[in-house]
Write a structure and sequence with these properties.
Layout (H helix, E strand, L loop, with lengths): L4 H10 L1 H13 L5 H44 L3 H11 L10 H18 L2 H15 L1 H10 L4 H19 L18
Helix pairs in contact: 1-2, 2-3, 5-7, 5-8, 7-8
Length: about 190
């Protein structure tokens, strides 16, 4: 089936670089295979051209990444050791800015208790009735406070969600107890 003239022109424009490369390849091989042999090589050559473009794009991205890393390294080197350590701790979320003090813990626990009283829900009430010492345990509450950097409101909200999730997945009878392997069924 013959292609129309506009389609032929479009084909030639789209593969102009392929034809140019084929001519160079043909001359390097010192063969004049003609158009029919070159046309059969177009898919392989087109793939090679695409691969070359992809390779150049990867190299460009690597160069940009390298430039960015060099810039960051230069900027970090301008900082003092303490500033650099602080920046790296911040990036890796291991900063120790808020040293726990007994006073801070007591104040946070008092705030926590206040927010529990104002936002207690049905599941919390069930947990208190089952095992008050479980939900009022200092270590239990500190887990939530530490997770939220001693923000009592967020900590209480998370604890209430935790109790709700335990009831949903393990039943209300397990809300005020630690979940153990025996609480899981064969599928879990």
């Amino acid at each position: 089936r013959m292609a129309s003239a506009p389609q032929n022109d479009m084909f030639k424009q789209n593969h102009q670089s392929c034809f140019s490369l084929l001519d160079v390849w043909d001359s390097n091989q010192q063969t004049k295979t003609g158009m029919s042999a070159s046309v059969t090589a177009i898919p392989q050559l087109s793939s090679a051209v695409h691969h070359g473009h992809h390779k150049r794009q990867q190299n460009h991205e690597r160069n940009e990444m390298k430039e960015t890393e060099e810039f960051l390294a230069a900027e970090l080197n301008k900082l003092s050791f303490q500033e650099r350590s602080k920046a790296l701790e911040d990036v890796h979320c291991v900063a120790d800015d808020d040293q726990e003090t007994p006073e801070m813990i007591q104040q946070s626990l008092a705030e926590f208790d206040h927010f529990v009283q104002t936002s207690a829900n049905r599941m919390y009430d069930i947990a208190v009735n089952q095992n008050r010492s479980y939900v009022e345990d200092v270590e239990f509450r500190l887990k939530f406070l530490r997770a939220h950097m001693f923000d009592a409101r967020q900590s209480v909200h998370q604890m209430m969600n935790f109790l709700q999730q335990k009831a949903e997945y393990f039943g209300e009878a397990k809300v005020a107890h630690d979940i153990t392997a025996s609480d899981l069924n064969g599928e879990e």
